[in-house]
Recover the amino acids of this structure.
């Protein structure tokens, strides 16, 4: 098989934005967050939060986004955890460990 060469420019862009949010509910497969910014279903992003001073990071995918009733211009966003690197502390791993300890 001969490798194909591209002609012209090949580009990739990365959009980075930080949003303040509040975690409303967490399960083993995902969580519900609230923020002032709407995100489209299918958006993949990194969620970072801190519990007991430990910064936790998870890759998440937005599954739904609805305007929160009675909360002004706030949005409730359902997300699922995409993967979890075993060596990295994550919200998912901390939750799983705490539930198994009980």
């Amino acid at each position: 098989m001969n490798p194909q060469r591209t002609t012209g420019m090949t580009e990739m862009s990365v959009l980075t934005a930080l949003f303040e949010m509040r975690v409303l509910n967490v399960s083993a497969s995902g969580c519900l967050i609230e923020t002032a910014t709407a995100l489209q279903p299918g958006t993949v992003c990194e969620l970072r939060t801190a519990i007991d001073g430990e910064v936790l990071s998870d890759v998440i995918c937005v599954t739904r986004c609805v305007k929160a009733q009675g909360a002004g211009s706030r949005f409730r966003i359902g997300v699922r955890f995409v993967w979890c690197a075993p060596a990295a502390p994550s919200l998912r791993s901390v939750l799983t460990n705490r539930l198994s300890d009980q």
Summary: The mean pLDDT is 80. Strands lie at 21-26, 30-35, 44-51, 54-67, 75-83. The two ends are 56 Å apart (CA to CA). Residues 21-97 form one domain.
